[in-house]
Every structure is written in structure tokens, then in C-alpha cells.
Amino acid sequence: MAAPMDAKTPVSDVSKPCKYVYGEEDFTLESNPWTDQMEFQCSQFDHEVRSRWDHAVEAGYFRYKLDSLKTKVIPGRLKFVAQLNVKRATERRKPQEMQSVSQPFNPKEFNFLKIRDHEILMELCPKQLMNDETILNGEVGNGEDDSLPTDRNIIIINISPLEYCNILIVPSVEQCLPQVLTIEAIKLALDTILLSSHQGFRIGWNSLCAFASVNHLHFHAYYLDKELAIESATTKAVYGGCHEIDNYPTRGFAFQLEEGQVSQLARLVYKVTSYFHRNEIAHNMFITRGTVFGHDNQSEKRTLRVYVWPRRPSYGAKTEDAFNIAVCELAGHLPIKVESEYDTMTEEEASRILHEASLSEEEFTNIKEQLISLLNGK
């Protein structure tokens, strides 16, 4: 699960949250094709966040110990990665009830201003938003300094982890934003995955009514040391940088980072997700490293891919299914609740469950036509 760390890389005091200041020069834009003997590289960001997460495990800050998850690649074209994670299904915090994609933030419900201080791993600080006297990467701050910005982007542990180093990225935590994507939040998520040089670092997001369990803006991120077929899935052009996923159980849209233009990608994805929000369409978003569109999984032409799935709404877990249909499942990573289901899961059965969340061809075509008009400025 955890990739080895280079002991030479300095890590600041892991018992305290650090203030991690970064710029574009800290991004890793390149990645490599997956191999059977993959050697994972860890950036300074990876070392800082993983060391702090490991400390939180040792200190007992989680609802359960993750242990070593049983993991297998299900035979078939889609290479679904199945993991047995019984504890997450039985010991996690009860999800909030969601009635609408645009449900407002409710300060009386659980939110990330109510977490314990030791759950915070770091604050993400883009250099362009900082003054000239700002500290450098990895310097420790205790969150009590009046000079620290009050609009903080924080990384916290997920106390009910689904994989190794499962963290939550919470943009502008004090603003109490509902679980609705903004340009700034999408940009922060893209920045964060580029700060990592680890091939298996992934970021996901669930809207309300698409298995978001807390109505306070946040992303999931974690390390999965397995290739996902979605990284090189074939796509068809829709319009202006927007593609659709081809030959996949759940209909969705795909985008890619071109020439390192992170802000441009964030704006494009936001145009699509904001349309879904305005029209009460539940949706999920997944960010991963992968191949440039049109290239297979062995290609060295690689970039970031972003997937967005408009989907049928869900108002609660379906206990009869082996897994929920949230963002990581849509991407082909299947945390399964019951050992017998894990043992017998096939690509056909997994595809059937995933297809339950998919919009019909007619619904998807209608959305696609609306997005073409939107992206064309009509």
C-alpha cells in the first residue's frame, strides 16, 4: 500500500500542522506508464502529507485501523480494482441526509470547523496569494498566529479511511461553502495532484445526492498503487476541450490538462459542473494522471485527466449492492463491503452495478447538446 519514502527528504515536525507554500515550480507535470515493477516517486508534498498521516495512525486518531486491505484486479478489459473494506461500511460516521444538489450549508450539522485540531495535517498556501514574508515549504505553524490568512485551504485526515493516506482537501474552510464546486476549488484540487509525483495519487469529489456525506466543500484524495483503466480510456470529442467517455459502463465527460494550463482547465470543468448544479443534476468528479487522449496505456504521452459523471441521484446507501456508486467506484476502484461479494465480484457484475447510476442515452445526449451550446457561447 504505502510506497517507500526517501529518508534523505527532510520532513518538518509531523505532530503539528505545517503551512505548505507552493508555486508552479513545485508541480510535477510528467508521469510514466505503469509497469509490473513500478517504482513510485514521492515529492516533498508527498513526504509531508504521508508522514503526518502515518503519525495520525500511530496516535490513534482514526475510527478504525485500516490494516492491509485485500486487493485484486478483476479480470477483464476494465481492470476494476476491488478492495475489501468492511470497517468503512460499518464504522464510519453516519452520512447526512441530502435532499437536493443545491442544499444550503447548515452550521448545525457536522462540518469541518467541528473537527479536532489534531485532524489537521497542513494548510495549502499558493504563493501568489501570500506576501513576500511568507515562510517556505514545510515550515510548521500551529494555526494560532494572527498573521496566518483566515481563509484557509486545509488538508485533514479522513477518520474513516478508504485507502492509505485518505485525506480530505477543504478549500476556504472558514467560508462554510456547501458541497458545490467553484473555479477556485477545482484549481486547488488540480494544484494538489500536481504537487504529488506519486503515480497513484488520486482526487475525487461527490456532489450532494451523489454520495457526498458532508455538506461542506471538500475533496477526497488518497494513494492507490494500482493502474486504473480510466487513465487511458478512449474518448470522443464533444466540443472545445470537452470529450465524452467511450465504451464505459457509466456515461460521462472527460477533460485533460494541455500545456500545463491549470487555470484554463479549471474554468472549462467549472463551466460543465456549474451547469449540472444549476439544473439539479447530481455529479461526481475524478482527477488522475493518465495518457493524452488518443493514446493507449503504454504511451509516454501523459497528462492529467479529469472526469465528470452526471448521474442518477442517490439519496442513501443501497444495502443490497456490494458497493456504493460514488466517485472512486465510477473510476474503477471498488471498495467492497462484504467478503463474499469481494470473492465473487466479476467485471460483468461490477459493470451492471455502475450502470445503475448512468443517465440514459437520451438524457445524456440532451445534456451533451446543452453543453455544446454553453461552451460555444450561445
Structure in words:
By secondary structure, the protein is of the alpha+beta class. It contains 8 helices and 15 strands. It has helices at residues 44-59, 86-91, 183-195, 262-278, 327-330, 339-344, 347-355, 361-375; strands spanning 18-22, 70-73, 81-84, 120-126, 139-140, 153-157, 167-170, 201-206, 219-223, 235-239, 242-245, 253-256, 283-291, 302-310, 333-336. The strands form 2 sheets. The chain has a 12-stranded mixed β-sheet. It has a 3-stranded mixed β-sheet with strand order 2-3-15. α3 packs across α4. It is globular, with a radius of gyration of 20 Å. The chain starts with 17 loop residues before the first strand and ends with a helix. Mean pLDDT is 89; it is low at 1-8 and 132-149.
Summarize this structure as a short list of keywords or feature phrases.
378 residues, alpha+beta, 15 strands, 23% helix
Task: Detail the topology: elements first, then pairings.
Elements: E1 18-22, H1 44-59, E2 70-73, E3 81-84, H2 86-91, E4 120-126, E5 139-140, E6 153-157, E7 167-170, H3 183-195, E8 201-206, E9 219-223, E10 235-239, E11 242-245, E12 253-256, H4 262-278, E13 283-291, E14 302-310, H5 327-330, E15 333-336, H6 339-344, H7 347-355, H8 361-375
Parallel strand pairs: 1-4, 3-15
Antiparallel strand pairs: 1-5, 2-3, 4-6, 6-7, 7-9, 8-9, 8-13, 10-11, 11-12, 12-14, 13-14
Helix pairs in contact: 3-4
